[in-house]
Design brief:
With 80 residues, this protein is mainly α. It is built from 6 helices and no strands. Helix 2 packs across helix 3 and helix 2 packs across helix 4.
Length: 80
């Protein structure tokens, strides 16, 4: 799994846990729905940290909580 996939999966997991749609997350995060969908559908291969922070704000969690998962801990180095 790469970082982009891990971010996508984490957003989907958190939305599912909260029974929240992508559009609702976008609204709560003050982001256009297209920005969130671009992350989820792989069009945005390098989302800004500020965007992730806004998503965390919309989800009611910290950046630390977002990234504190076994999936992120297990990511391999992407520089080859």
């Amino acid at each position: 799994m790469n970082t982009v996939s891990a971010v996508r999966d984490r957003i989907l997991q958190l939305c599912e846990e909260r029974n929240m749609s992508i559009n609702k997350l976008a609204t709560l995060s003050a982001l256009p729905p297209s920005s969130v969908k671009n992350i989820l559908y792989g069009k945005s291969q390098n989302p800004k940290l500020l965007t992730i922070k806004l998503l965390c704000d919309g989800l009611g969690i910290t950046l630390g909580e977002f990234f504190s998962t076994p999936e992120f801990d297990a990511l391999e180095q992407e520089i080859q």
